[in-house]
Write a structure and sequence with these properties.
The protein is α+β, with helices and mostly antiparallel strands and 287 residues long. The chain is 18% helix and 28% strand. It contains 5 helices and 19 strands. The chain has an 8-stranded mixed sheet, covered by helices on one side. The longest helix has 18 residues. It is globular. 36% of the residues are buried. The model has no long low-confidence stretch (mean pLDDT 93).
């Protein structure tokens, strides 16, 4: 009997599809090839209510690239037996966090935008979810670029954006960094990427805003003009685009392409427990 082909069913927006017919315990190279094609097509894939182990997740993720250690894995988000996994949790043990991120809101961002080679993708699995809150939102940065007015496109094409990498979005000093002497963030350590990046596999262009307008500068522009343009680009990207909302159920897996999407997370009641396990795969330097 021939194995039934996988199916991707687009849901609610231009950026996500549900995968039907994939068996995490019985798949082959052809299945992975088809999943990759859907991943590149939609940007975000969802697998509903799976029942897999941490080892299964690691094995599956390995098909999509080398593992990347997320910065938070070096702090409170390390997994006790699988170093490939970032634990996202608001629980504590002996007064110390057992995972990263707590219960606060996470604003729109692409993952580790301040790296030389930001990750290509992430695979996030729900272990335990609160009764409400903690939802994750996704949007397409392809669409953010493609729907820009012509006047804005002419301003961003060919431009580069600088991101400081000394402080995180909360104002906390990043691991291994020291307090800068200058008050001008453009003189701190940082990374320069194209403001419009071309996807290494699809060839499509996507707007690349990173994770915050604070500590970001469009290279060569006066700072006030850069700030004004970035504010306009952020407003366009997060206000005008179709957004997919993932309301988690235990076992759900979201798999996203970090090169052409952004995501954010709602806060939730700290008395509730939310535990997620995430694997991250390597990417190329944006071009």
């Amino acid at each position: 009997m021939l194995k039934e082909r996988l199916k991707a069913v687009q849901v609610e927006s231009n950026v996500c599809a549900d995968i039907e017919g994939f068996d995490f315990n019985n798949y082959d190279a052809r299945d992975i090839e088809e999943l990759r094609r859907y991943w590149l097509q939609y940007g975000v894939l969802r697998f509903k209510r799976t029942q897999i182990t941490d080892a299964d997740q690691v094995a599956f993720s390995r098909h999509f690239g080398e593992f990347v250690i997320h910065p938070k894995q070096l702090q409170e988000g390390g997994h006790p037996t699988h170093p490939e996994i970032l634990v996202i949790s608001n629980t504590t043990k002996d007064g110390k966090p057992t995972g990263a991120m707590g219960n606060s809101e996470a604003t729109w961002h692409t993952d580790t935008w301040f790296y030389e080679k930001p990750p290509a993708g992430a695979i996030l699995r729900a272990i335990k979810v609160p009764p409400s809150g903690g939802d994750t939102y996704f949007l397409s940065t392809y669409m953010a670029y493609e729907t820009l007015p012509a006047s804005l496109k002419s301003l961003v094409d060919g431009r580069q954006i600088y991101f400081q990498n000394v402080y995180d979005k909360t104002g906390k000093l990043r691991l291994g960094k020291t307090e800068p002497k200058s008050k001008d963030f453009r003189e701190w350590g940082g990374m320069v990427h194209p403001l419009v990046r071309t996807h290494g596999e699809t060839g499509r262009k996507a707007l690349y805003l990173g994770g915050t307008s604070d500590g970001a500068w469009i290279v060569g522009m006066p700072l006030d003009e850069s700030n004004a343009l970035l504010a306009e680009l952020w407003d366009h990207t997060t206000r005008d685009q179709e957004v997919f909302v993932q309301r988690w159920e235990e076992g759900d897996i979201m798999m996203w392409d970090n090169r052409c999407t952004m995501h954010r997370r709602d806060s939730f009641d700290p008395a509730s427990i939310r535990i997620m396990h995430r694997t991250t795969t390597s990417g190329e330097r944006p071009i």
